[in-house]
Amino acid sequence: MTAPVSTDFAIQHATFNHVWAALMLEELYRLGVRDVVLAPGSRSSPLTMAASEHAGLRCHCHFDERGLGFMALGIARGSHRPVAIITTSGTAVANLYPAVVEAKLLGVPLIVLSADRPIELLDNGSNQAIDQRDIFSRHTTVHHDLPPPGSEIDAAFLLSTLDQAIDQQRRSPGPIHINCRYREPLYPGHCVVDASDYLAPLGHWLADSKPWSNWQASAVTPAPKGDWERFAQQRGLIVMGSVEAPHQAQQVVELSKRLGWPLLADVQSQVRFDPHNLVHFDLALHDKCFSAELAKAEVLLQFGGRLISKRLTQFIAQQPWQDAWLVDPQPQRLDPDYCVKRRLICLPADFIADLPKVPEQPPWHRLASLQRRTSQLLEERCRAFSELGVCHQLAQLAQGQLFIGNSLPARLMNMLGRPRRTTLRIFANRGASGIDGLIATAFGISGTRSEPTTILLGDTSTLHDLNSLALLKRAVQSLVVVILNNDGGSIFHMLPVPTEGELLERYYRQPHGLNFEHAAKMFGLGYSAPESLDAFAKSYTQALQSGVTLIEINVPHQQVADDLTALEVALREEPHEQ
Q: What three-state secondary structure class fits 395?
């Protein structure tokens, strides 16, 4: 006998499109979705209404689909939950492409629910109709092109399709795309659809709160117990790339202490400013004495990939490692120079917990003392008001969460700073390392924790995502946007770009001559433009207590390249005998 229909799930809906939309949103809720981001649109009305009417879902809106996708990326990364994205048909879907690419590379669980026209309205001049089938190509983990809703198709087909898709996403994290074709009517009319007969075969699903079908992933066994003792007895080096969970990263710090191995932690590692990390290793690699000592390492143990430091990646590529292991939960290669000999797909804490205990060993190296010269030279050059000075100071002043933009900001923050007493949660979009959608991503992250958030961006990145400044007024906690305005892509001063004629200026750096004071006013944000390090510290400290503030740092375009070149020259010089 069929179980009675539960009153928890509505049996009357505006159209049959709405029946399917409600089933989808309810099943996604049961599968762990709590946040839905939506852009305006007509064809997506059934999904929009279902999401807005679901008591367990939080809905977030943005008028710009490109920013919408990155906001979803930020919410998913901050909450560690899948996030659904609802868009209408046509180029609205295509605007999600950059965020989907980033989500695929970082293994972020986005669920794109794109509304579409039925197949008979394609390729015939119908308005706002494009071919959306598999529009994201190989950048999604799963893609389904659903038929238009109809009572002849079992509801269990729809639920089980979502169950399988989410299971595949859990096994291979990344975005999934569900293309939803809707015929008109799209809006409520005078009559409602009574779906009780259609829903009745769902049986206990209607009276329960569990998904329709239960897919269980098998556990990964991370422990290479037989080889660990041999590996651990050698002179080793621990490198940390992207690790988003602070407690996972701290386990790596403790392992480094126990083994006596040096720790080189990327700014994305969550322990970049831990006292045990060789915080200035990126710059210290210019120092021959430091590099020579580091080169005595025989084996490499790396946690997380996507290292920002080019000097470190070159060092790793050039070393004749006796063995090299890489631990990361994402099933990606993460080995651009093909050095890794053992790839372990698991969380750092799971790997460490499974290791046989070894007695605590004294450090085999003297890298900390060799790094002091780099730290002293750096402190001297960070006393001036400059991009180096501001980033160095921000590394100490920042509280709560820090989202770092790509291009120069990521590189500078990976070089600068000093050990901190308080923890700082750090994020960056280093999957594709694009400069689009950064403000929206950071805003999404900011709403997932009850602490202040700081965004550090370049001027060109800010211009790319200017529309997303409209989101920031909704921030619940203090939010500070620090813009390093060097009038264009000044990173090209540090790359081997041709400089003949106008090539560098016109086609690479592309100066714009703009500032952001009027943008702050337009979007109702606080604004300051300090002209000294003391003024920056004062402005930033005040901003942490006063809602949303944009702090603009105006500096000459050539300054940062000159500063870094001078620092490199000083580090390469032979140290004077004491």
A: helix
Res 501 pLDDT > 80: no
How far from 526 is each of 466, 494, 537, CA to CA, in Å? 15, 33, 16
Give the Cα separation of 143 and 23 in Å (integer). 18
Q: What is the pTM of this model?
A: 0.94
Cα–Cα distance measured from residue 121 to residue 530, given in angstroms and rounded to the nearest whole number: 56
Residue 29, strand partner residues: none
Contact residues for 349 (Cβ-Cβ < 8 A; gap 6+):
247, 248, 251
CB 443 within 8 A of CB 71: yes
Residues 400-420 pLDDT 10s = 999 999 999 999 999 999 999
The secondary structure element, H or E, covering residue 85 is: strand 83-87
CA dihedral 363, 367, 369, 375 (to 10 degrees): -140
Question: Is the distance from CB of 98 to CB of 434 less than 8 angstroms?
Answer: yes
Measured distance between the N- and C-terminal CA atoms of the chain, rounded to whole angstroms: 90
The angle that helices 97-106 and 65-79 make with each other, rounded to 10 degrees, is: 20
Which structure tokens are listed for 297? 């390492």
Q: In this predicted structure, what is the pLDDT of residue 497?
A: 84
Q: What is the DSSP string of 339-397?
A: --SEEE-S-HHHHHHTSPP------S--HHHHHHHHHHHHHHHTSSSSHHHHHHHHHHH
Q: Tokens for 555, please give them.
A: 């500096």
pLDDT in tens, 28-83: 999 999 999 999 999 999 999 999 999 999 999 999 999 999 999 999 999 999 99
Q: How would you class 152 by CB atoms within 10 Å of its CB: exposed for 0-12, middle for 13-18, buried for 19 or more?
A: exposed
Tokens of 50: 């279902």
DSSP 433: -
Output the six-digit token pair for 389: 């000075």
Distance between CA atoms of 344 and 323, rounded to whole angstroms? 14
Residue entry with tokens 């085999």: 364
Which residues does 268 contact at the CB level (< 8 Å), separation at least 6? 241, 242, 243, 244, 304, 306, 308, 426, 427, 428, 430
Bond prior to 185 in cis (omega within 30° of 0): yes
CA dist 180 and 254 (Å) reads 48
Query: At 114, which helix (H) or strand (E)?
Result: strand 110-116
Query: 260: pLDDT confidence band, cut at 50, 70 and 90?
Result: very high
- The CA distance from 508 to 561, in Å, is 15
Phi, psi (degrees; rounded to nearest 5) at 516: -115, 15
102 vs 69: CA distance, rounded Å: 10
| Contact present, 102 and 67 (Cβ < 8 Å) | no
Q: Per DSSP, what are the bridge partners of residue 455?
A: 403, 481
* Token output for 351: 């790997």
Contact between 103 and 440 under an 8 Å Cβ cutoff? The reply is no
Task: Bin 433: left if φ > 0, else alpha if -120 < ψ < 50, else beta.
Answer: left
Q: Do the Cβ atoms of 248 and 328 come closer than 8 Å?
A: no
How many other C-beta atoms can be found within 10 angstroms of the C-beta atom of residue 442?
33
